[in-house]
Amino acid sequence: MARDPATRSEIEQLRDSGQAAELEKRLQKRIQFGTAGLRGRMAAGFSCMNSLTVIQASQGLAKYLKDFHSELVPRGVIIGHDARHNSARFAILAANAFIAQGIPVWFFSGPAVTPTVPFAVTDMRALAGVMVTASHVSF
């Protein structure tokens, strides 16, 4: 969190105001990947959606793909995002995590609706797809 000034400031404010219970809630558990992917409120801490948790989840998926599907890695990953707050930024962070692991990325240059990502995965025969959206509705 130290690299993101906004989340660092948020944690420091909680610390400085003595909000130990809130700090514990945010820092003692990690956000869980479920059926619909990562879901949670945007805030500082390991249990929330923020730059750090997006990067870590992307690194984890990249590692999984390389460890279990290494022969398919050249097919790359499709990454899309919607127009909601932080979606484009989170998508860029995810893309950088895959690129850093040597996995090619096909990135939608602007907002996309959710179904375009699985369509692109199938059409381009990509290894995986990531859709960054705040929506709880898939399309």
From TrEMBL:
Domain Alpha-D-phosphohexomutase alpha/beta/alpha: 31-136
GO cellular component, as recorded: nucleus
Transmembrane residue ranges: none
MF (Gene Ontology): metal ion binding; phosphopentomutase activity
Ligase recorded as keyword: no
Biological processes per GO annotation: carbohydrate metabolic process; purine ribonucleoside salvage
Keywords attached to this entry: Isomerase, Magnesium, Metal-binding
Coiled coil: none
Similarity comment text for this entry: Belongs to the phosphohexose mutase family.
Name by which UniProt lists this protein: Putative Phosphoglucomutase
Source species of the chain: Aspergillus calidoustus
